[in-house]
Specification:
mainly beta; 3 helices
């Protein structure tokens, strides 16, 4: 009898496990999208950058994970004098899988952060402004090849009924590296992870 009770209990537990909602699934790993071509560091958060190609008028297609961001290889280089560089990420990728780069959305105007491409010197940027537009109505100026160089960080916004209705942009300008004499610290190096 005791053995029968244990078997029934185990069977019931098995059916409970299979009945758990998909929300219990884990978030996609940072390795999605291939090897990192660089990192973006905002505050104490360092996020790997994967190469993405933004097609003019096409959708923003960051890596299929909340733990990495995409650096557009079709737009201006991070060290360019003119044009716009573009980084895009998922603000959320599944229930409970919030974007690792979401810290930039809450950083105050004037905050600085670092972007480092693999094998290159770090580049520092300062947040100038934020902008928001209806989804699929991206501003052409965010992708311009002319004008002063800016870094444009793009993600979805305004989740309603399971659908994002807006695209949020954070616009940043390149600034000199922070001086160890003024900050009391050494400029942060990017991680050397292979993701």
């Amino acid at each position: 009898m005791k053995r029968l009770v244990i078997i029934v209990a185990l069977a019931l537990m098995g059916s409970l496990v299979t009945a758990l909602p998909a929300e219990a699934a884990s978030c996609p790993p940072a390795t999605v999208g291939g090897k990192a071509i660089g990192w973006i560091k905002v505050g104490d958060r360092s996020v790997p950058l994967k190469p993405v190609t933004y097609r003019k008028g096409g959708p923003l297609d960051p890596p299929a994970t909340n733990q990495a961001a995409g650096l557009s290889i079709r737009n201006a280089k991070l060290t360019a004098k003119r044009g716009k560089s573009v980084i895009t990420w998922h603000v959320r990728y599944g229930v409970g899988c919030y974007g690792s780069l979401n810290t930039v959305l809450k950083a105050p105007i004037g905050s600085t952060f670092m972007v480092k491409e693999r094998g290159k010197d770090p580049v520092y940027f300062q947040i100038m402004k934020r902008d928001s537009v209806p989804k699929n109505r991206l501003r052409a100026s965010w992708f311009a090849r002319t004008g002063a160089h800016r870094l444009v960080l793009l993600t979805c916004d305004d989740l309603q009924g399971g659908v994002f209705l807006k695209t949020q942009a954070v616009i940043a300008k390149r600034v000199p590296a922070p001086s160890p004499a003024t900050t009391g610290a050494t400029p942060a190096a990017a991680p050397t992870s292979s993701t």
